[in-house]
């Protein structure tokens, strides 16, 4: 700020070249015309003007000086300096300096107002950028959590799929082994049935032979003793034939019942195995559909994560650009 005594400052300031030229002219006028006129006021030095105008390098975005108050104080000091009564009469040089000083003062006031508006805009932009960055960080953390949960679910589903595939393969191998065993038993039963049929045909042939023997003429012996002996032989043969026939009939019935039970059991097992395999296939298809949907959800989450990362990178780049501009 300027000192409150402008005449003393003006007199204490070092003389310039213009003042020296003016003093030489006055000496010549004294010699020619008589008494000298009072010397004009020297110009205000630039150092005093620099005191009133603060440099732009001292201002920062973080500082918010009350430019309006400082301008009012500077204007008041300047008005006091201008309106202060002076013992020296005003000259043309002083008027020019005064006009220049007022122009600089107006420029300083307008620049201070512009700087205040710029600082306010910068603070508003900084606040908006901080809010945007906070929102982006929150969204990023939320998407990362969701993506992590989706990835965990996909991993669990993949593990479950592997376990189910292993179980299905093991069950399929065991089912194929069981079907092979049942097929082998079926072939064995067919062979036994063939043997039984052959034995039955043999018995039928023997029966036909017996019937033919029965229908053949009987040559009985003529003696009583021979007749009795022949009758005893026939009776023994008949008894043995009846016993063997009953035994074969029982054996045939037993084997037929066993073979029927085996065939029914094999048929039931085959039907149950087919039903179980069909149900397992349906369940596996449904599970594969669910896993496909989960995989699609995971892929969508991964795509959303990539888009979020790109948006975060763009926001970070914009923030860096704003910081560099600031």
From TrEMBL:
InterPro entries associated with the record: Rabaptin_Rab5-bd_dom (IPR015390)
Residue stretches making up the Rabaptin GTPase-Rab5 binding domain: 91-322
UniProt-annotated stretches for the region Disordered: 1-50, 63-84
Keyword Transferase in annotation: no
Residues annotated as transmembrane: none
Keyword Glycoprotein: no
Record's keyword terms, sorted: Coiled coil
Record field: compositional bias (Low complexity): 11-20
Domain of life: Eukaryota
Coiled-coil intervals, chain numbering: 165-199, 298-325
Protein name: Rabaptin GTPase-Rab5 binding domain-containing protein
Organismal lineage: Eukaryota, Metazoa, Spiralia, Lophotrochozoa, Platyhelminthes
